[in-house]
Amino acid sequence: MERAKETTEALIFFSPGGDYTWHHVINSTIRHWRDRCPTVAVDFSPLDSLAEGFAPRIIETLARARRPEILGPKRSLSAASRNVEVSREVISELEIALNSAVMSVLRTTNTQGFLARRLRILFLKSSLAIYRATRQLIEEMPALQRVLLPNGRFPQQKAIAMAAREFDLEVLYYERSSDRSSFFMQPFMTTSISERHRAMAALEAPSTEILGVVKDRLESRLALEDSSNPFAKGWNGGFGISNVENAVVYFSSSQDEFWALGPEWEVDFESQYSGLSAYLAENQEVNHLIIRMHPNTLNKSVGYALNEVREVSRLSRLFDGKVQVIAPHVPANSYSLASACRRVIVWNSTVGLESLYLGKDVTFLAPVQFATRLRLDSLTSLEWARGTATESQVLDYLASSEMLYSKSTEPVQSVSPETLMGRILHICLSRPAVLWVILVREIFSRLVVRGIFSVAGNVLWGDRH
Fold it and tell me: 406 with 389: CB under 8 angstroms?
């Protein structure tokens, strides 16, 4: 153990939560670095109040690799590390990640309720313990050069990165690819707009082969039947709206996913619908607006759904006669709708990029990662990004993204699956009580939210689907 510490060049932090695809990514990342340099893998879930722990069969598989060595449940903090004072700056920097975690787990933008406050306490407690533990491990490993961690969005992960940077170590984030068949590593979080732009600017022009790959992938998403977009499953193409060719369509976003990602994603509007109201007030020529609500809204909390209904209904009353609403449960094909309408407006949804590929004039009401790359003009006093892009420009952006990730993309190597009964027993025994409460809440929400939108569609918005 001591010799390994003296020669360790890479620390790979992991937590066993999530589905099997994440377990595969963990396994593959460890194998990748084990073959290149002395590596130690660190399971930080014992310090995480919200972790479920590793299922027995998976930890056995990882342990059989012998190297890297696995520091897990028996690892304890020294008294000195437990008592390390954490600065206000560290806690302040964790704030964004705390908000992001609470919103993601509860599927709502409300971070003030009892359950949200309880979650914040547990996340903060876990993050500070992991921060102290990371500092201790780094101090014990003089040969250490880099630290790897998943994603970086949640506070437990951010705490690791903050501790590593205090020692001027290289920090790499590993992440699943979009199709979950491979993984990639990069020196910045996927959600960092400015760092992503800088990395893409340094790339060479994409090859014809890569352009062909991304074109096939994009067109498989845009297919009117059997789309590869998971939200498009079951969309039937019909939307039953007359005079659609003269309409402007707004595609809403499941907004909680962006509100807590940091300053680069901040906007001046209270919500996406207040931003849309400001846009309509300044663009009086829009006399027919279709609001296509994001299908993922069905997976949010009851409170989130009720707020969406209030916001959309308020906007509909404000612009009486101009607005038609397609509720999230209605299987209208969004790509067919975008193609048919005169213009497209989005918050920062991927459908905005896809609509550019379809040749549409698109307005973005919030920051998007591809605005600079596609040179979308900033127009009006509110500085909305608006413009058109050629098919080749969109493909160039997607190909550059592919090249950015492909530098460190490797196939995912699987680990031995557990039996179904073993997985069920493990979850029952290891899941923290607060996560059981959240699970029950989520099941209840799924049942109620669809009913909320069905009633709103029929009673408030005159839904005839």
Answer: no
Helix (H) or strand (E) holding 333: none
Long-range contacts (CB closer than 8 Å, 24 or more residues apart) made by 337-343: 337/239, 337/244, 337/249, 337/290, 337/292, 338/249, 338/251, 340/244, 340/245, 341/244, 341/245, 341/247, 341/248, 341/249, 341/290, 342/245, 342/246, 342/247, 342/248, 343/248, 343/249
Helix (H/G/I), strand (E/B), else coil: 273: helix
* Helix (H) / strand (E) containing 150: strand 146-150
- Residues, the chain, total? 465
Residue 187 is given by DSSP the state S
CA distance 107 to 301: 6
Strand partners, 70: 41
Q: Domain residues of the chain, as ranges? A: 2-190, 208-404
Max alpha carbon distance in the chain (Å)?
A: 74
Q: Which contiguous run of DSSP H or E holds residue 331? A: none
Query: Would you state the pLDDT for residue 211?
Result: 92
Residue with tokens 């201790």: 136
For residue 86, what are the CA distances in angstroms to 28, 89, 132, 156, 163?
Answer: 33, 8, 8, 14, 11
Give the range with max mean pLDDT: 110-119, 155-164, 271-280, 312-321: 155-164
Residue 401, beta-bridge partner list: none
pLDDT tens digits for 228-254? 777 776 676 566 677 778 899 999 987
CATH of domain 208-404: 3.40.50
Burial of 4 (0-12, 13-18, 19+ CB in 10 A): middle
Q: Is the pLDDT of residue 127 over 50?
A: yes
**What residues does 379 pair with on adjacent strands?**
384
Q: Are 385 and 363 in contact (CB under 8 A)?
A: yes
Q: Is it true that the peptide bond before 68 is cis, omega within 30 degrees of 0?
A: yes
The DSSP H or E segment spanning 329 is none
**What residue type is assigned to position 74 of the chain?**
K
Residue 136, helix vs strand vs coil: helix
User: Which residue type occupies 416?
Assistant: S
Q: Does 358 have pLDDT greater than 50?
A: yes
CA distance 125 to 136: 17
Q: Kindly report, residue by residue over 386-396, the tens digit of the pLDDT.
A: 667 788 888 98
Name the pTM for this structure.
0.79
pLDDT of residue 327: 92
Mean pLDDT of the 430-436 span: 74
Closest CA to 293 of 305, 284, 285, 301: 305
Percent of the chain with pLDDT over 90: 15
Residue 117 near residue 434 (C-beta atoms within 8 A): no
Pairing mode of beta strands 10-14, 410-411: unpaired
CATH class of 2-190: alpha beta
